[in-house]
Amino acid sequence: MTLTSFGPANRIKRSAETHPLTWRLRDDGEAVWLDEYQAKNGYAAARKAFADMAQDDIVQTVKDSGLKGRGGAGFPTGVKWGLMPKDESINIRYLLCNADEMEPNTWKDRMLMEQLPHLLIEGMLISARALKTYRGYIFLRGEYTTAAKHLNRAVEEAKAAGLLGKNILGSGFDFELFVHTGAGRYICGEETALINSLEGRRANPRSKPPFPAAVGVWGKPTCVNNVETLCNVPAIIADGVDWYKSLAREGSEDMGTKLMGFSGKVKNPGLWELPFGVTGRELFEDYAGGMRDGYKLKAWQPGGAGTGFLLPEHLDAQMYAGGIAKVGTRMGTGLAMAVDDSVNMVSLLRNMEQFFARESCGFCTPCRDGLPWSVKLLMAIENGEGQPGDIETLLGLVGFLGPGKTFCAHAPGAVEPLGSAIKYFRHEFEAGIAPVSAVVPPLARPIVVGA
């Protein structure tokens, strides 16, 4: 996995001043364990938070920093923290780390957990102090076996050093932390489905309100944050709000840095910590090196399979939520995928929609029935057996499964790439529509089982 610096030619060394998430990484890619982490100023922010800051001051500092969720939704972290109840009589509260990183083409949290497990633990420790939570869980994607091993070792190291458990740093504050591996469902990325799964229930999203801050794990106040989000907290506490805001490029409404990447047939696929506001072109050309010889960029997704496709002319958009919104899609996880000119968009979308259909929890009708329907139509078009009106039906499904039409955001994310692909590459879909003479009556068309 590649980690480079701000400089396109890698001449600028990562430092604590410019790369708060990645400056401690080892060049050999091995994990940074407790002794080395503390030698690199690890847990200094936690000691500051425990010794010098009131709990409400920690919350206010994070709110003032402008830190937003790094899992894809981008909700302001300090605002979410502020939703936790102020009633001191509620002495059972939970902090959950959403490490169920199942978004296709996304691996940023995996890198942090495998190589910097103590950064996540320190972020959770400070957050627990701020939120008065006595127990935390890292809900980890089941396939991340190396991350599980490293996190469990780091938890034991922190316990032995008095950084987890009872009376942490002599403060009288107790915090227990557990690593919980999931059973492998994409829907667990939705925070209330994650909570249900942690409780041993089926991973269905819950109705909101009440929100987890009021009624979460086992009916108690709960805060759920993404891995990368929590890993930003120590630097904010250690170095302050003004410094953190100064990291972003001019024009960006999002503060700090972001782990961004590019995959596909690019010369240098990888992952980099970059300031919010860099352009997609910088990310694609200066860091990913452009397309491999013999390939041309046809389209790209800015942040995972649940974001809409963009064209090469959109590469000048700034990589932050508002900047990507200006060209018609979402920032998502910030890990982009290049689609080369050898890829048929119908086949790519059929593959994507099959994944999303299979990962639906099946709770609401539009998602449960609409996504398999889209797969059926895409398979027909892919095989040259599409019928007149199929493209319009697909566009209708994009509308029926859009934001506000389903119980959670799974279906809207699933159909966003479909709608954009038809918008920009409709001719490829039209090529799969059979001649009128070959039209099959609707009742005679095959039913796709298990799509």
Automatic annotation (TrEMBL):
NDH-1 shuttles electrons from NADH, via FMN and iron-sulfur (Fe-S) centers, to quinones in the respiratory chain. Gene3D superfamilies: 3.10.20.600, 6.10.250.1450, NADH-ubiquinone oxidoreductase 51kDa subunit (3.40.50.11540), NADH-ubiquinone oxidoreductase 51kDa subunit, iron-sulphur binding domain (1.20.1440.230). Its cofactor is [4Fe-4S] cluster; FMN. It comes from Pseudomonas migulae. InterPro entries: NADH-UbQ_OxRdtase_51kDa_CS (IPR001949), NADH-UbQ_OxRdtase_suF (IPR011537), Nuo51_FMN-bd (IPR011538), Nuo51_FMN-bd_sf (IPR037225), Nuop51_4Fe4S-bd (IPR019575), Nuop51_4Fe4S-bd_sf (IPR037207). The lineage of its organism: Bacteria, Pseudomonadati, Pseudomonadota, Gammaproteobacteria, Pseudomonadales. This is NADH-quinone oxidoreductase subunit F. Its EC number is 7.1.1.-. Belongs to the complex I 51 kDa subunit family. The keyword Oxidoreductase applies. Transmembrane segments: none annotated. SMART domains: NADH_4Fe-4S. One of its GO terms (molecular function) is NADH dehydrogenase (quinone) (non-electrogenic) activity.
